[in-house]
Amino acid sequence: xxxxxxxxxxxxxxxxxxxxxxxxxxxxxxxxxxxxxxxxxxxxxxxxxxxxxxxxxxxxxxxxxxxxxxxxxxxxxxxxxxxxxxxxxxxxxxxxxxxxxxxxxxxxxxxxxxxxxxxxxxxxxxxxxxxxxxxxxxxxxxxxxxxxxxxxxxxxxxxxxxxxxxxxxxxxxxxxxxxxxxxxxxxxxxxxxxxxxxxxxxxxxxxxxxxxxxxxxxxxxxxxxxxxxxxxxxxxxxxxxxxxxxxxxxxxxxxxxxxxxxxxxxxxxxxxxxxxxxxxxxxxxxxxxxxxxxxxxxxxxxx
Length: 303
Fold this sequence. Notes:
Strand content: 15-25%
Helix content: 40-55%
Keywords: DNA-binding, Transcription, Transcription regulation
Domain HTH lysR-type: 4-61
Shape: elongated
Protein name: Transcriptional regulator
InterPro entries: LysR_HTH_N (IPR000847), LysR_subst-bd (IPR005119), WH-like_DNA-bd_sf (IPR036388), WH_DNA-bd_sf (IPR036390)
Number of strands: 11
Structural class: alpha/beta
Oligomer: single chain
Largest sheet: 7 strands, mixed
Family: Belongs to the LysR transcriptional regulatory family.
Radius of gyration: 23 Å
């Protein structure tokens, strides 16, 4: 009979998330030998390894990838059992791993997390900020519990829930010829020098959609941070398509000018990502219930 303990499952999950026994031991306040023994005993009971060993790192093999979401669910259910059985059963604790694309993580994190953090101070939030492509990948490999992105994501295993409307603006330095011209037309952008986000970014995808509506120009820089793009535009290196929320300060101080481009559609939707096969326990339920969705979707969130 297989008798795998919650501690062994915890070690397995933490190694999967952090890539080494040492990191898992530190997160769980165990000695490294104790963590190694827990993993070895779990693999012995399963009669199969769950990791491939490569250059000192542990990577989930096919069996491990299949078992990871089940192990996470068992641990969440175990914690929920204890919470409901305790006297202060209403107090949520634990860890929530959230991924946010750059606009959300850098400029809207208060909107995303503020209400939940105030309501549940015992819950540890682990926030990863990356581009939309990386956040979607984190959702698919179960290293994230929920994602918030600014770009379209299409995958059969991911549920997309609208969260906020977002607006981009085309920015230029005040001395740029386009900033001085009144009544801009698409033809005025012929030969323009553009500073873009990196491929995989939702802002890059929106910028490419905008560029397709304009005469050919030149991409002079590709940068992976919005702040870096702002500074490049302020320095006169080119123009850029940037989230309005990210340039409020630069527009107010006159370091940037927003070009009037009514002929361009610069709207987009910020969305929450959920894995359709992930167990949605009390933590995730509380987060979703406290999130002001643009279009709340009915239906059970628990499996």
